[in-house]
């Protein structure tokens, strides 16, 4: 019975926490991350710009699959340890991709530091904030689209300035 409850919680995108007293199981608590209402449309806009979104999480596969579907990411990897996150970032970079990473935990710090662009929420741990290039002071991951748009504008402006300097 408990296994069924745990599977149901995980399959619904939450993390099950079994509560015990000694060897006696008292019940299960459902811990749920709230997926921002407009994040799915933001990921769709990023996809339209040619940007692939991948969720790399320490969550179990059932929870990760449910959250990935709700958020609308292109791919996901579950049960990822810090070294797995770091290795995945390096794999993408070795394939020639520019990699941006968002994270908020100490376990995200190595990957945030390795990424070409590391973004941490202000609510993140000190280690994650220090490893990042940017800190989102509003802790609002839906700002990703604006960050990408500003970054592209900066690259275009930098390119125009470089062209102007070479031409003179």
Q: How would you describe this protein?
A:
Strands 5-6-7 form a three-stranded parallel beta sheet. A two-stranded antiparallel ribbon has the order 1-2. Strands 3-4 form a two-stranded parallel ribbon. It has helices at residues 2-11, 39-48, 61-71, 82-94, 109-114, 126-131, 144-167; strands spanning 15-21, 24-31, 54-56, 75-77, 100-103, 117-121, 134-136. 23% of the residues are buried. Helix 5 (109-114) links the parallel strand 5 and strand 6. The chain is elongated, with a radius of gyration of 19 Å. The protein is an alpha/beta fold and 168 residues long. The chain has seven helices and seven strands. Helix 1 runs parallel beside helix 3 (61-71). The protein has one domain: Rossmann fold (3-Layer(aba) Sandwich). The mean pLDDT is 88.
Low-confidence runs of at least 5 consecutive residues:
none
Helix content: 40-55%
CATH class identity: Alpha Beta
User: Superfamily at the CATH H level?
Assistant: HAD superfamily/HAD-like
Strand order of the largest sheet: 5-6-7
CATH architecture heading: 3-Layer(aba) Sandwich
What oligomeric state do the depicted chains represent?
Answer: single chain
Shape: elongated
Order of helices and strands: HEEHEHEHEHEHEH
Q: And the CATH topology?
A: Rossmann fold
Beta-strand proportion: 15-25%
Number of domains: 1
**Structure annotation, total helices:** 7
Class by alpha and beta content: alpha/beta
Distance, first to last CA: 76 Å
Radius of gyration: 19 Å
Largest sheet: 3 strands, parallel
Organism: Acidithiobacillus ferridurans
Subcellular location: Membrane
Keywords: Membrane, Transmembrane, Transmembrane helix
Main location: membrane
